[in-house]
Amino acid sequence: MHLAVAQIRSRRRPNARQQMYRRYASSMVEGHKFFSDMIDRSAYVYVTGLYPSHLRATYTDVLRQITRPFTKPSSLDSRSGHVILRPEVVQDMQLEKHAMIREVRRKIRQGFLIEPSRGFGTRRNYSKIFMFKLNVDNLPYEPCTINIDGSVKQGW
Predict the structure, then answer these.
(1) Deepest of 5, 11, 31, 32, by most Cβ within 10 A of its Cβ?
(2) For residues 126 and 52, is the Cβ–Cβ distance under 8 A?
(3) What is the pLDDT along the chain (156 residues), one digit of tens a residue?
């Protein structure tokens, strides 16, 4: 009687970055310009729950891979947005430390709301978040712009 010997195949463990970023995993490494560019574009999605407009196809493709649809409003002020970043991506990119996100959170604590769009045909630039307050008559006032570096500009 001859016993068959089971041969165990050895293979590398799956790479967490490979699973998160798929074919862009080699570019999504700290220190690469592509990674820092993606952090800024992802910060916009994290704040607004929307994709920025007028992006190159590569950036849009990466955003599609690292986000998922969300049924409730997904913006930080819970008023708009339909996509959310995957939690492991938020942690990998350290988005909670991003200057724009910290400033937007500070403004939301002060009573500001996010303006998801400035109107039909306008661009949603990933480097700017438009915010405003509502007065007692529900009319917007005190508009401000939060830039990608966390600086605040009064007005739009």
Answers:
(1) 32
(2) yes
(3) 666 677 777 777 767 777 788 888 888 888 889 999 999 999 999 999 999 998 999 999 999 999 999 999 999 999 999 999 999 999 999 999 999 999 999 999 999 999 988 878 788 889 999 999 999 898 989 999 999 999 999 988
Residue 87 Cα distances to 9, 20, 68, 133, angstroms: 32, 10, 10, 29
Write out the two tokens for 146.
């939060």
Residue with the two structure tokens 């306008």: 122
pTM (2 d.p.): 0.86
State the Cα–Cα distance between residues 75 and 59, nearest whole angstrom.
20
